[in-house]
Amino acid sequence: MNHLADHTAVVLAAVALDLLLGDPRRLPHPVVGMGRMINFLERVLRRVFGNLRVAGMVLLVVTVGVSYGAAALLLYVAGHVSPAAGFAAGVYLAWVSLAARSLHLESAKVAKALARGDLPGARLALSYIVGRETADLDEQEIVRGAVETVAENTGDGVIAPLFYLMLGGPALAIAYKAVNTLDSMVGYKNERYLEFGWASARFDDVANYVPARLTALLMVLAAPIWALSGGDAWRIMRRDGRNHSSPNSGYPEAAAAGALGVRLGGANRYFGRIVEKPTIGDPVRPLTLAAYSGVVRLMYASELILVAAWCVAMVFG
Questions:
Q1: TM segments (predicted)?
Q2: 241 alpha-carbon distance from chain centroid
Q3: Which residues of 199-218 are buried (b: 16+ CB within 10 A; e: fewer)?
Q4: Against a cut of 0.90, is the pTM above it?
Q5: Is the pLDDT of residue 195 over 50?
Q6: What is the mean pLDDT of residues 176-191?
Q7: The domain containing residue 114 runs over which residues?
Q8: Which of 10, 217, 277, 308 is deepest in the core (most CB within 10 A)?
């Protein structure tokens, strides 16, 4: 096979493995290594640099550079062992960069608990996938949290790594995962990370700028497949896409809200403090488990539309 065919085969194999098996938890995972590296570097860099913003910039450069370099080295070495080994290494790195199945499985724990009337269990399951406090949430607020996190993470957990995988291969997808992992670990606007995590948070915003908007457009296209409203998805995306503290997350959330006919956003509690967020969407329908099922379907359809469009482009481009 030529390079283009190899690249296409790697992407398709990785997507298939993710959809069928989810995250390969029993195998060595690059994100685990990234997390350990970030923790180690944070301790060192805080001691070495007096300026925390500079320390955070060094953290960003080293973490992303090492992650990309290690992935590229693995691909190089495996490719020189044999074409099959190179292909396997590429598929593995691409597979671990995708998270559609895992996002579905983790969020489904919330839905299953709600379906059996277990509010405490649903609150606990939700607490593992959102940053807000969940202990006092009612059923609609629990569903809102699940819908919001699936919509947002369709962008940075599914479409964004797939976008970078298609654009630059497995090493670039791993570099994106490093950026995303940095943001999730140090990109907080609190006293500890406001300066130290500034560079990671800003670079994550840059890296997700195109993928977030692409995700929203894919959701608009995906909505009619499930008898949802593509027109309302487009309208709400344009109207409410900026109604979010993140410059990116509001776009997929708004497209999903419009397609589902629900209202997202509103009050959340963080560390004992109520934070009022702008609302996204119109409350045409109540926030029920049907909304959760709908956003999961939007996630899968958006991913498959992107894969199909890319394959067509590879064949005829």
A1: 54-78, 84-103, 162-179, 210-229, 295-316
A2: 17
A3: bbbbbbbebbeebbbbbbbb
A4: yes
A5: yes
A6: 93
A7: 3-316
A8: 10
Phi, psi of 2, rounded to the nearest 5 degrees: -80, 175
CA proximity to 186, closest of 314, 289, 34, 311: 34
Q: What's the CA gap between 199 and 55, in Å, rounded?
A: 9
With vertex at residue 11, the alpha carbon angle to CA 8 and CA 12, rounded to the nearest 5 degrees, is: 85
d(CA 187, CA 194): 8
Take residue 220 and report the two structure tokens written for it.
Answer: 């608009």
Place of tokens 């290594």: 33
Amino acid letter, residue 201: A
> Is residue 274 predicted with pLDDT exceeding 70?
yes
Residue listed under structure tokens 């096979």: 1
The domain tally of the chain equals 1
Contacts of residue 63, defined as CB under 8 A and 6 or more positions apart, other chains included, come to: 34, 37, 38, 41, 178, 181, 182
Residue 317 is given by DSSP the state -
CB 150 within 8 A of CB 69: no
Among 54-58, 75-79, 275-279, where is mean pLDDT lowest?
275-279
Q: Do 175 and 164 meet the contact criterion of CB atoms below 8 Å apart? A: yes
CB 170 within 8 A of CB 71: yes
3-state secondary structure of 137: coil
Please check the confidence at residue 1 and state whether its pLDDT lies above 50.
no
- DSSP states of 174-199 as a string? HHHHHHHHHHHHH---STTTTTTTHH
**Tokens coding 294:** 């709908």
Are 210 and 282 spatial neighbours (Cβ–Cβ below 8 Å)? no
What is the DSSP code (8-state) at residue 271? Answer: T
User: How many CA atoms lie less than 13 Å away from 301 in the CB half-sphere?
Assistant: 23
Both tokens assigned to 262 = 């629900």
